[in-house]
Amino acid sequence: MAAPQETPRYTARLLIDCADQPGIVAAVSGFLFERGANIVSSDQYSSDPIGGRFYLRTEFFLEGLAEEGERFKRAFEMEVAQRFAMEWEIRWWGERQRVAILVSRYDHCLVDLLWRWRRGELEADVVAVLSNHPDLAEEARVAGVPFHHVPVAADSKRDAERRMLDILDGKVDLVVLARYMQVLSGEFLERLQAPAINIHHSFLPAFAGADPYRKALEHGVKLIGATAHYVTAELDGGPIIEQDVARVDHRQSVVDLEGIGRDIERLVLWRAVSLHLEDRVIADGGRTIVF
Q1: Are residues 193 and 281 in the same domain?
Q2: What is the mean pLDDT of residues 46-56?
């Protein structure tokens, strides 16, 4: 589904990662100034001013850049990026990433993401929904998204992952686990060649495993929450993107906690996916920097 027409807020978004050293901001801003660009947003962070990494996210407006995009990139590489040994990329206004959603039987995160996407609240194209159960096929159909049922059995998990890779390989830029209740293998993640974001039903680490809300109730918790993180081969150990909590007390039942938890999960996942799609999340070792 095409996003609603919107007046461009910027022409391009420039993302930079390099060793921290003097002169980086001056070089980038000077390069843009010389070409008549107007910087409309800029965020920067240094992990350590001595020997650390420097990260920059900037959006700028420059008329006519669409016709001169390749020349602009070549000039930036030669005049700035090579000088500072930068890893960098540029994303043009309106350039949309392709997203696939993995889900099992819980529908709240999937339905929320599809609803927000149809309203134009995600800078992306949702290109597929994959599930190990057929239950939510109708939700995908109503949204106009292809649905793929890929059953997963204990003795055929590798075959299921191969089928999923056949569907996803080279066709997606991001995979979102919207309460997908299967553990993805390290081999799958390596071959996927795209980041994956998962929503976890609590703060990490806390009450891992089955029936987390009953465990939370039995421990008399006063806060419950959810965590969105990048998926790695380490189970629930990937860099955290977003978290949130709600206060609870002894008056609430397991059903009450589950309902509150669902609301937190869908909001945290939506925020994490949005942050990623807007290039506001940068991995710095085992943690994330979120602009």
Answers
A1: yes
A2: 91
Provide the number of structural domains found in the chain. 2
- Say how many residues make up the chain: 291
pLDDT (0 to 100) of residue 156: 86
CATH code assigned at 274:
3.40.50.170
Residue 16 within a domain: yes
Residues with catalytic roles: 236
pLDDT at residue 206 in the model: 58
Q: Is the dihedral of CA 161, 166, 169, 175 positive or negative?
A: negative
Q: Are strands 287-290 and 147-149 parallel, antiparallel or unpaired?
A: unpaired
* pLDDT of res. 224: 83
CA distances from 282 to 16, 154, 286, 291 (A): 10, 35, 11, 8
Q: What is the pTM of this model?
A: 0.88
| DSSP β-ladder status, 124-131 and 97-103 | parallel
Burial class (CB in 10 A: 0-12, 13-18, 19+), 213: buried
